[in-house]
Amino acid sequence: MRPEPDELAALHTLEAAALAAWPALETRDLGPWQLRFAHGYTKRANSANATRAVDGICPAEIDAAEAFYAARQQPTIFRLASFCTSPGTDDALATRGYRFADLSLVMALPLAMLAPAALNSPALECLPDAQQWLPVFEAVSGAHGGAQATHLAMLQAILGRCAWGVLRNAAGEPVSCGLAVVHGQSLGLFDIATRADQRGQGLATRLCQGLLAWGRALACDTAYLQVMAGNLGAIHVYERLGFRRRYHYW
After folding, report:
1. Residue 6: predicted pLDDT
2. 37 has which bridge partners?
3. What element of type H or E holds 180?
4. How far is CA 188 from CA 108, 138, 150, 163, 179, in A?
5. Phi, psi of 85, rounded to the nearest 5 degrees
6. Each residue's pLDDT expressed in tens, for the chain with a length of 250 residues
7. Which helix (H) or strand (E) holds 155?
């Protein structure tokens, strides 16, 4: 069952903010679908996404999407959001050999409900730009590899105001980091990471509190994030901060 019109409009606003805050390096419109490409770095930036409600997908649309990604030497991925796609879309894709994968949640928090602990938390250190923040993210997350140039290009393509947040230990070493992006009145949290040997100490909570307070000071009214449905530890952290599931995608 589709949400009521006001709720549906709010979900589309969240989805549009999330797509804008995590930009692909190339996009192409295909009817109700936006084809996104970023040299394979993250499925969100390398998939076909419905930009309005769809009741199905026709063979010609699938063919065109497959041709787009084949020309870029990437697999064809359709990212389906629960509020704007239908079982008919899943059925049509399954008939063509596509399989369900990577169930993820989109969680949101009205910033008017932000807990006093977040507003009174110590000021978060924010680095000046993506180029200085990305090596910190790689050191904290352990996400080294050949995608650094693409990741940096995506971060530098963000049009909204950003907070490149980092927490350090007493020795000055970065132990947790994350990114907040403003789009309209929405605040997106991305790339939240804590060093493996420092987890379980509340660092991610402190980091998110700082990013949320930063966004509220800029008059954002809603914060959101995206998390894999199986990442129960992260979901628990976000629920304690007040985030609740708004929709899911796969």
Report:
1. 84
2. 26
3. strand 174-183
4. 9, 20, 20, 10, 8
5. -125, 170
6. 567 878 888 999 999 999 999 999 999 999 999 999 999 999 999 999 998 889 899 999 999 999 999 999 999 999 999 998 889 999 999 999 999 999 999 999 999 988 777 777 777 899 999 999 999 999 999 877 678 999 999 999 999 999 999 999 999 999 999 999 999 999 999 999 999 999 898 999 999 999 999 999 999 999 999 999 999 999 999 999 999 999 999 9
7. helix 148-156
Q: Are 102 and 250 in contact (CB under 8 A)?
A: yes
For residues 216 and 111, the answer to whether their CB atoms sit within 8 Å is yes
Residues 12, 53: Cα–Cα separation, whole Å: 9
Give the C-alpha distances (Å, rounded to integers) separating 192 from 82, 226, 233: 24, 10, 13
189 within 8 A of 227, measured Cβ to Cβ: no
Q: Which residue's entry shows tokens 């080294």?
A: 144
Residue found by looking up tokens 């530890």 in the block: 233
Picking from 52, 59, 101, 58, the residue whose alpha carbon sits closest to that of residue 77 is 101
- The whole-angstrom separation of Cα 169 and Cα 94 is 49
Q: Which residue matches tokens 């110590």?
A: 122
**Residue (of 52, 21, 24) closest to 36 by Cα position:** 24
pTM of the model: 0.93
Token pair recorded at residue 212? 């949320």
**Phi, psi dihedral angles at 235 (to 5 degrees):** -60, -40
The residue type at 130: A
Starting at the edge strand found earlier in the chain, the sheet holding 33-37 runs: 26-30, 33-37, 48-50, 78-79
User: Which residues, 6+ apart, have CB-to-CB distance to 9 below 8 Å?
Assistant: none
In this structure, the strands spanning 174-183 and 162-168 are antiparallel
